Amino acid sequence: MTTRKNPDAPRKILVTSALPYANGSIHLGHLVEYIQTDIWVRFQKMQGHEVHYVCADDTHGTPIMLRAEKEGITAEQLIDRVWHEHKADFNSFLVEFDNYGSTNSDETKQYAEEIYLRLDKANLIAKRSIEQFYDPVKNMFLPDRFIKGECPKCHANDQYGDNCEVCGAAYAPTDLINPYSAVSGAKPELRFSDHYFFKLSADTCQQFLREWTRSGSLQPEAANKMQEWLGAEGENKLTDWDISRDAPYFGFEIPGAPGKYFYVWLDAPVGYMGSFRQLCNEKGLDFDEYWKAGSKTEMYHFIGKDILYFHALFWPAMLQHAGFRTPTKLFAHGFLTVNGEKMSKSRGTFITAKSYVDHVGNTEYLRYYYAAKLNGTMEDLDLNLEDFVAKVNSDLVGKYINIASRCAGFLTKFFDGKLAFGEMENVLGGAVGSGQTIAESFESRDYARALRDIMGIADRINGEIAIAAPWILAKDETRRAALHDICSRALHGFYVLSILLRPVLPELTSRVARELFGMNRDFTWHDLSVLPTRVNPYQHLATRLDPKLIEAMVAANKESLQPAAESRQRHAEHQQHTVAKEAAQAEIDMQSFISIEDFAKIDLRVARIVNAEHVEGAEKLLKLTLDIGEAQPRTVFAGIKSVYDPEKLKGRMTVMVANLAPRKMKFGLSEGMVLAASGETPGLFILSPDDGAQPGMRIK
């Protein structure tokens, strides 16, 4: 993150997540951000650092005003109701803010006005007359998204005023054919209005942003995108930013400009400051220590890549030129897909947080699954619902919980809950060493790697338990020492695993600390260096995730949106698909045998993995460099990223199809295929030859 003079000294850190808009429910896509932020914050707090995590509802703008009007309530009543709904959703998923505020607050208004006035004093605010559409029925100027009409490119109807959702074309609202107001349906009129602009094109802003976006404050892929938007040195691609809107508008009125309001995107990030000010007032913290220019504290913004433009250009330029500090780093993440596709209401995969809670219940299961997919990059994350069930049941229940459920009972039954310490130094050394490695992964937000390493420890412990078979030892009174030893080592391991998993599973591990190990507090990272001496009687900790709960959740979301006729149509289509599938399978069954000549056509070769690396922008792929005895190694892209650490693949022997036609992919040319096995149970396993096999040997 940052280089500090004393790396062991407690850090002072301010963390934020993007502000959810108060015009809709929290859904599973939103939760990708808040869960990953919460995991990072909890990890830092476990380290003993002073961390403050703040957020707020984004409450201003035309959509809020119009929705409140439609519901016959005030905008203030609407945002208050939505605030409580959002906060309840976050609480359900154990997202623990130190303060959760609202942009419609006195504190946010104070800093929005202060920033504006300072920018104005620095000659970075300009006033200009612009021409825009006006709704003569509603007596209001229309934002681009509230103007619809015929696309000027493909002539699709009912397209928005800024881009066409059919052909993807971008254009100005005035380019629309037969435009109409999405608010009243009236034909809009073009009228002039005075607007206020932040002069982002000014040389001082351009130069600052060129330096700041290259300073290490952005992920490499985000920094590259910023250079595209900024253009080459000497090229001025940024235009001034319109920061005002005309009345009627729900927001803060601009000082000295009656009837003009701050555009919602100006005061939304200022909401970070307003929410933190509320926390300062409550806890007696020094606001300036975190926000003044030159601050030595750390500040991190977790955001989606879709709002990178605002956070990496507008926001730091505003802060810098208004005399405040800029973020230490922005952590941008990708979007959520469900079963490999965009969330869909028709498929029942546009799932709200509340719907998940109502049908599935255990929110830590989703926290774990998301963490197992997050690697600190801007790659999109896929929630595969079948894989979700399998991974939760395999990892959390089958590996982690399995350790305690199999061994803790023997300790309380035969040894009064006391743990043996035959190899205490080795256990402690291993725990501390594992903690250091996994801490590095959590720090860099590579939760996927952290959980792979954690489950690797669980696999080793379960392997030892399987070999020792304590359930057999317990039947032989002469082998009590061996029983005591294996169960104690298993519970020491379970203790270590629980500490390492705490950022991801705060509620479950809190129960482990208090109920099983008798602590009067939750785990800290430093607990890795002190092992427990006894355990209490084991209490049931977790149940397997029933796939029927997921099916019911998806079905409920479908049923709430589909008319009966559509449902019947899909049922008929499903029946036709089933018949076709069965017919196809019958044909496959008839052709299930091949001849030796067919097999001989496949050139299978032993290959050594010379190098393995992540592929930027690819969610599932690793790039493998394979030696098969040829003059030049082959490049193969393999979909094994979710189960293999590339560093651990280097030097390993495997098997590849050497005569598969090369395939051109967007990441490069793939010159073959490595072989892997999978089945109905979770897991993917690449094949390896026996010792002695050399690169290039043919498999016959």
Automatic annotation (TrEMBL):
- The EC number(s) attached to this protein equal 6.1.1.10
Position of sequence motif 'KMSKS' region: 342-346
Q: Which HAMAP family does this chain map to?
A: Met_tRNA_synth_type1
Q: Which InterPro entries does the annotation name?
A: aa-tRNA-synth_I_CS, Anticodon_Met, Met-tRNA-synth_bsu_C, Met-tRNA_ligase_1, Met-tRNA_synth, Methionyl/Leucyl_tRNA_Synth, MetRS_core, MetRS_Zn
The first-level EC class reads: ligase
Q: Name one Pfam family in it.
A: tRNA-synt_1g
Which purpose does this protein serve, as stated in its record? Is required not only for elongation of protein synthesis but also for the initiation of all mRNA translation through initiator tRNA(fMet) aminoacylation.
Family (UniProt):
Belongs to the class-I aminoacyl-tRNA synthetase family. MetG type 1 subfamily.
PANTHER family xrefs: METHIONINE--TRNA LIGASE (PTHR45765), METHIONINE--TRNA LIGASE, CYTOPLASMIC (PTHR45765:SF1)
Q: Any keyword Zinc?
A: yes
Q: Has keyword Lipid biosynthesis?
A: no
Which Gene3D superfamilies does the entry mention?
Answer: HUPs, Isoleucyl-tRNA Synthetase, Domain 1, Methionyl-tRNA synthetase, Zn-domain, Nucleic acid-binding proteins
What molecular functions are annotated in GO for this chain? ATP binding; metal ion binding; methionine-tRNA ligase activity; tRNA binding
Cite the record's note on assembly: Homodimer.
* Binding-site list for ATP: 345
Species assigned in the record: Candidatus Gallionella acididurans
GO CC annotation terms, alphabetical: cytosol
Q: What does it catalyze?
A: tRNA(Met) + L-methionine + ATP = L-methionyl-tRNA(Met) + AMP + diphosphate
Q: Where does the TRNA-binding domain start and stop, copy by copy?
A: 598-700
Provide the cofactor list for this protein. Answer: Zn(2+)
Any single biological process term in GO: methionyl-tRNA aminoacylation
**Annotated binding of Zn(2+), by residue:** 151, 154, 164, 167
Q: State its location(s).
A: Cytoplasm
What name has this protein been given in UniProt?
Methionine--tRNA ligase
Where in this protein would one find the motif 'HIGH' region, according to its record? Answer: 20-30
**Keywords tagged on the record:** Aminoacyl-tRNA synthetase, ATP-binding, Cytoplasm, Ligase, Metal-binding, Nucleotide-binding, Protein biosynthesis, RNA-binding, tRNA-binding, Zinc
Q: Which domain of life is it from?
A: Bacteria
